Amino acid sequence: MNTADHLKRGVRWSLGHGLPGGLMRMAARKGDFQGRMTTEAGRVSTQELLPLIEEIRAAGTMAKWRLGHITVDHEAVRETLSSNDVHAGFVFEEGTMLGRVGRWAKRDGLNPVEAPSLLAVEPPDHTRYRKLVTRVFTARAVEKLRVRTEEIAGELLAAIPADRPVDLVESYCAKLPVEVISEILGVPEKDRGLVLRLGGGAAPSLDMGLGWRDFRDVEDSLDEFDAWLGEHLGYLRKHPGDDLFSQLVRASDDGEQLTERELKATAGLVLAAGFETTVNLLGNGIRLLHEHPDQLQMLRDEPAGWANAVEEVLRYDPPVLLTGRQVSHETEIVGHPLKEAELVITVLAGANRDPKVFDEPNRFDIQRANARDHLSFSAGRHYCLGSALARMEGEVGLRAFYDRFGVVELLPGAERRQTRILRGWENLPAKLTVSDRSELPEVVRTAS
């Protein structure tokens, strides 16, 4: 990296993390809601954030913070995320010094929080990018993958030893979604460990206020991911298959107007998003069922309840804590006036605990009739395109795990991920006892 690139990286950190992080810490000391959320989220679990969430709820539907509003209200969150008067991503005002400096220092490679990432663009570009990948993630297409997902789960579970402590995240929760999305996208088996490592390294890029060393590590992971994508997509141009990556390459080369940068941004986000949410969903699910053995017994007695149980896991401990929007022009959300350029922070975990929508919202209940009303997959045009895949993998993955292991003893030493936005477990040490093999699904018995 030359001197100019080093300088640009320093500017990016200062504008995106150093300055905002300092302001958030200062604001937190003065009681600012978003400042407190930003500083506390990396240290505590979502459950431990509930007192702060309830403070925000008590302050009103659209509570004020330093740069705009923050909401934990279900209706307000849904309306904000669905509104055409707000946009994803943060844009510095045109003509300002910060705007000029930000554009000069802008990163050329992958960046999930900046255009042309699907997370940071709006129509018509968002519509164009999303159209190219949506068909692979429809409910019908995902259901066709169920049997293969069961086979992969069985193979992974059969390889987990039951006679010594294991880390469930490393041995199962992370591996299952990576194997599934890699098959969909055509990632070679030899590269899947690399993809998992790079995805984990890039995950903190969604957070604000990273320290310099963490920011540098994130950008190094993104650079490595960018280089791998370039090589892999180049290989697929010469050796195309029926996978999504090959389809994206063909669409780009056949006049769909995807530049190389747009192609890599779209492919990279679909790949990383295809396993990040599900890794957290599986780990959170195992932990919650360990803490609520009565709920687990219900599922052992009535396996038809697994689909709704996954919805309750998503509601109770969502894989994504919050997301932000910027107001495009003066508008109203649930009757509250918003000014142009204000930021609106929508706390998904707070909306999922709204007592106006969910009875006894702080109770984990796998039989909750409206569990699917959660907003863990966002809403509106940025609704998670991989939601059907995550739901299916969560259902298959958790059911197969508990069919395989009759006793799951979680051991001391579990650590949560330090990321603020993505919520899950870094590791889950456990000791496992295999069930009576006659009770296992055919795919598990075959894999064993």
Automatic annotation (TrEMBL):
Keywords: Heme, Iron, Metal-binding, Monooxygenase, Oxidoreductase. InterPro entries: Cyt_P450, Cyt_P450_B, Cyt_P450_CS, Cyt_P450_sf. It holds the Pfam family p450. Belongs to the cytochrome P450 family. This is Cytochrome P450. It comes from Flexivirga alba. The lineage of its organism: Bacteria, Bacillati, Actinomycetota, Actinomycetes, Micrococcales.
